[in-house]
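lol forgot to send this yesterday, sorry. struct tokens for the thing we talked abt
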């Protein structure tokens, strides 16, 4: 029994301030040298996290408060990365449930709290951002009690400590307005409110591996928690494989966490978090135990994926120009590598030998994977996201989401209409009296594909949109597809300003002049329902007119360059997004104008109707 360790995870809805609070905790614990420059949200260490300002991967850190070591897992709040939170909860003895004092509990707050209650982890509720001018702290606390009750919390669980914080300035209060000037009340609440880890340092070794890391120097690194016994550097231990086999291995190096560093250790006793080098072949969810006397821990299970996308090799005419990895073999080995560290992803073979079906929790999760791959030098094509359909007792089921939209009152009508057309049903509407309303819908997950962009347009960028998986419902049949067709290049060549100028009334263009296109590439959105083949390479006929006055006539409306997520949202069933390290293009699946099915949507719909 170790008295001097506490293990906590910080959980919350996206952007409620988890990583900022960890910053403040690290600063105040004296982990950093006084003159050490520290960036904001230092735990969001990978490039994509910094660019997007969100946490994608759960990460460990540790600090000392007096003589107590506090191991902290910072988790992502975006629902697509819920798998990270589920794993983090396996490592800890309690959670800080953070809630924005103005936004209040949102779908992911519900999700993470539900998981924490199910794991019987004690909670400390932290109302953050109390400095916001629109903070409604008391009302939000009521909503949190309501949420606990709604999730069938026991009397004991309802008796949680509450703290009020400003994570940006690093202040925590026991009571609003008390004279606290730092985070001491929070540290004290963690030490007194979260139990010390159980386990016997002399007992049988049990380590659960919840994360993997890789270093060029040390190879694969397993990160996990020692639940029982003691790890000794250099000793022989067994990996309890998911298959039930115990595979012997040698512990080369052990590390514990301290701030952003890892300290080498000779021994790590139960209760602590550890990073272990030398355990080749271990996978997330497996455990490490004694070879002589194995006592494997339950393997980790997490929620199933709900969304799938086909990844295939780039077989377009411009393939291989930008990327280093373009073959089926490259794609397969990269995806297999992803499986090692990303447990909420699955990979299946698709119909053709050079494609794979990648299953995940949401569009953002898959977009992050694609973005990471293109930065590593991969080229690939990805298809339209589709939801995962299940069959249970002979019935076809599809996933449903709880969708929460917060927007100014003026947009209620248009939002309801957009969501209604995607089979969303209003479950609840609350008017906070601030000019904004909060609406809750239940909607098939399919209905969310492309919805975000649409709602932002509908509400002129003012809507806050949050959704979360909410169980399985009977499959509702075909859903309306993208209402517009594509403008499709009918021949290869560089685009010209003259040709684009002639086309811009037809719809919205995705490319500007001087861009190399190929037959079958999508250059814009048609304002009509059908696809339209267009020539974007047309040159103006030479005339005797002076060039300058001729060019004056060409005024191009700025085109809409789609980023990866927008491109994924845009494409229809018969289209691909082409991703290379340098460019994102959209294209038809069938490039050849003569071979391309003309009325693809109707053909598909009639296939749906034919009983197989
Ligand atoms: N006014 C105010 N802003 C805060 C406070 N805490 C965090 N923020 C801001 O809220 C934004 C989100 O903070 P993060 O720490 O990235 O939130 P997070 O919960 O880690 O977000 P995810 O990991 O992506 O779920 C940042 O712009 C912070 O500066 C606070 O107490 N007051
Ligand atoms: Mg974060």
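and heres what i got for the seq, position by position
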């Amino acid at each position: 029994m170790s008295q001097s360790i506490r293990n906590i995870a910080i959980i919350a809805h996206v952007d409620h301030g988890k990583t900022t609070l960890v910053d403040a905790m690290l600063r105040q614990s004296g982990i950093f040298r006084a003159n050490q420059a520290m960036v904001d949200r230092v735990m969001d260490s990978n490039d994509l996290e910094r660019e997007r300002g969100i946490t994608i991967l759960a990460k460990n850190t540790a600090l000392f408060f007096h003589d107590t070591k506090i191991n902290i897992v910072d988790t992502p709040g975006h629902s697509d990365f819920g798998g990270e939170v589920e794993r983090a909860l396996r490592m800890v003895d309690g959670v800080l449930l953070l809630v924005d004092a103005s936004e209040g509990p949102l779908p992911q707050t519900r999700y993470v709290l539900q998981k924490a209650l199910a794991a019987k982890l004690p909670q400390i509720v932290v109302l953050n951002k109390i400095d916001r001018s629109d903070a409604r702290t008391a009302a939000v606390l009521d909503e949190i009690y309501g949420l606990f009750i709604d999730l069938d919390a026991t009397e004991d669980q309802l008796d949680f400590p509450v703290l009020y914080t400003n994570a940006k300035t690093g202040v925590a209060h026991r009571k609003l307005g008390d004279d606290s000037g730092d985070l001491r009340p929070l540290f004290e609440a963690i030490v007194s409110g979260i139990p010390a880890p159980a386990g016997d340092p002399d007992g049988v070794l049990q380590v659960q591996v919840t994360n993997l890391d890789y270093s060029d120097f040390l190879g694969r690194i397993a990160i996990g928690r020692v639940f029982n016994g003691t790890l000794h550097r250099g000793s022989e231990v067994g990996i309890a494989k998911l298959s039930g086999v115990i595979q012997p291995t040698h512990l080369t190096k052990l590390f514990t966490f301290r701030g952003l560093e890892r300290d080498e250790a000779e021994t790590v006793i139960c209760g602590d978090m550890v990073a272990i080098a030398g355990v080749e072949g271990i996978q997330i969810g497996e455990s490490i135990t004694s070879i002589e006397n194995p006592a494997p821990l339950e393997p980790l299970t997490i929620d199933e994926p709900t969304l799938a996308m086909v990844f295939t090799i780039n077989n377009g005419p411009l393939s291989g120009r930008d990327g280093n990895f373009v073959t089926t073999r490259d794609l397969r080995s990269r995806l297999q590598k992803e499986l090692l560290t990303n447990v909420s992803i699955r990979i299946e073979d698709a119909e053709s030998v050079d494609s794979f079906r990648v299953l995940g929790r949401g569009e953002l999760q898959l977009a992050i994977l694609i973005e990471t791959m293109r930065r590593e030098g991969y080229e690939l094509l990805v298809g339209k996201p589709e939801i995962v359909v299940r069959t249970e007792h002979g019935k076809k089921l599809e996933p449903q989401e709880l969708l929460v939209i917060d927007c100014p009152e003026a947009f209620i009508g248009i939002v309801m209409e957009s969501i209604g057309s995607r089979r969303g049903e209003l479950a609840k509407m609350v008017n906070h009296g601030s000019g904004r309303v909060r609406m809750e819908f239940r909607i098939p997950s399919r209905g969310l594909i492309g919805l975000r962009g649409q709602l932002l347009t509908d509400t002129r960028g003012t809507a806050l949109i949050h959704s979360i998986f909410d169980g399985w419902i009977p499959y509702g049949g075909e859903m309306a597809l993208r209402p517009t067709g594509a403008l499709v290049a009918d021949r290869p060549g560089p685009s010209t300003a003259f040709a684009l100028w002639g086309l811009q009334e037809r719809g919205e263009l995705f490319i500007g002049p001087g861009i190399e296109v190929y037959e079958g590439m999508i250059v814009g959105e048609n304002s009509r329902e059908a696809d339209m083949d267009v020539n974007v390479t047309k040159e103006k006929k030479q005339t005797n007119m002076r060039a300058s006055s001729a060019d004056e006539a060409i005024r191009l409306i700025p085109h809409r360059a789609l980023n990866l997520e927008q491109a994924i949202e845009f494409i229809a069933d018969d289209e691909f997004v082409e991703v290379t390290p340098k460019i994102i293009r959209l294209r038809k699946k069938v490039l050849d104008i003569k071979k391309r099915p003309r009325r693809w949507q109707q053909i598909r719909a009639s296939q749906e109707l034919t009983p197989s």
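The chain has 15 helices and 35 strands. anyway ping me if u want another try
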